[in-house]
Write a structure and sequence with these properties.
By secondary structure, this protein is an alpha+beta fold. It has helices at 70-86, 108-123, 130-140, 144-147, 193-203, 206-214, 216-229, 232-251, 262-276, 300-307; strands at residues 2-7, 10-14, 19-21, 26-27, 31-38, 45-51, 59-62, 65-66, 92-98, 152-156, 165-170, 178-183, 281-285, 291-295, 315-321, 326-328. The protein has one domain: 2-Layer Sandwich (Ribosomal Protein S5, domain 2), CATH 3.30.230.10. Strands 2, 5, 10, 11, 12, 13, 14 and 15 form an 8-stranded antiparallel sheet that branches.
């Protein structure tokens, strides 16, 4: 049997950064995100799972090359967690293909783990069970729990494996919000997100980190209201506030997690200047130097022209609100 799934990354408006339970990836705070689908450039992660009844081990093929190292171990660990949860026994061959860099702050791990969970759900005949898929995706990457769904998504932190999963707030047709991603680096981060989260929870001043955790539910409520009203100014203000808090947590971590570069700061300044000129555009980052700018369709061209002027720009990706993970018929070989 073979099942193939396609999934996309997501961009958090209320950020996931730290776990109460690292093994189960149960977060310290709830979060809210937008699933992203590329317009100018695909943001696709595709996974094919082929059962191997006679095999005693899983096999992992990344972009045409068999992997037996760190990536293999990550996939096998995720598969093992999903097998324990569902009772599925067979070994599988995992074949993947991606259209964007993973590990550089574009939520590639979210797209990868949600695609794997979607394909796995296809193998066990549970494609319609969104809650199950979100729980399974979370075991591979916390933010992957959100990429299972399209549109605007809330991940309730919960307090157990079965209660920590994402649900859709509004679908991808609710609002034609645009995300312009300024790529200033495609290199993997020196400190991966999962390690950075552990460091922040352990070493960030308790008052700062607990304040960051404590404000999440209020920010989710406020951003949900902005999304409901399609209010870009209110949404943008809280998005940038969240980004500022996240930045402070990272900088107060030991050692400091300074994911930004000079180019990051230059682009953030340009977006601020645009807003002073009456252009509704709001900028932030994930755990990486690349900048996510939210705006409305009529301002996209102006935003792109402006950030093209920044030094060290490698690429600009224009995104819309995207669909969740889904099975497709074109299998990878």
């Amino acid at each position: 049997m073979i099942k193939t799934a396609l999934s996309h990354p997501n961009k958090a408006l209320v950020i996931y950064w730290g776990n109460e339970n690292d093994m189960l990836r149960i977060p310290t705070r709830s979060s809210l995100s937008i699933t992203l689908q590329g317009i100018s450039h695909p943001l696709d992660y595709i996974v094919s799972l082929r059962t191997m009844p006679s095999s005693k081990r899983d096999k992992v093929i990344i972009d045409g090359i068999e992997d037996k190292g760190e990536i293999y171990s990550h996939f096998v660990h995720h598969l093992a967690a999903m097998r324990r949860y569902t009772g599925f026994k067979e070994k599988v061959e995992v074949t993947t293909r991606k259209s964007f860099p993973v590990g550089s702050g574009l939520a590639g791990s979210a797209a990868s783990a949600s695609a794997l969970a979607e394909a796995f759900a296809g193998l066990i005949g549970k494609t319609a069970d969104t809650r199950l898929k979100s729980i399974m995706a979370r075991r591979g990457s916390g933010s992957a729990s959100r990429s299972v769904l399209g549109g605007f998504v809330i991940w309730q932190k919960g307090n157990s494996n079965d209660s920590s999963y994402a649900e859709q707030l509004f679908n991808e047709h609710h609002w034609d919000l645009r995300n312009v991603i300024a790529i200033v680096s495609s290199n993997p981060k020196k400190i991966k997100s999962i390690e950075g989260m552990k460091l922040s929870k352990k070493t960030c001043p308790e008052q700062l980190y607990s304040g960051f955790v404590g404000v999440a539910d209020r920010h989710i409520k406020q951003i949900s209201t902005a999304l409901s009203a399609r209010d870009i100014a209110k949404l943008g203000a809280f998005y940038e506030k969240e980004n500022y808090l996240f930045r402070q947590v990272c900088l107060k971590t030991i050692p400091p997690l300074d994911y930004w570069t000079k180019a990051t700061n230059d682009i953030l300044d340009k977006v601020s200047d645009l807003r002073n000129e009456g252009i509704t555009a709001y900028a932030g980052t994930d755990a990486g130097p690349n900048v996510h700018i939210f705006t409305v369709p009529k301002h996209v061209e102006r935003v792109i022209r402006t950030i093209q002027e920044a030094e060290e720009i490698l690429d600009i990706i224009h995104c819309r609100v995207g669909e969740g993970s889904r099975l497709i018929e074109e299998h990878l070989t």
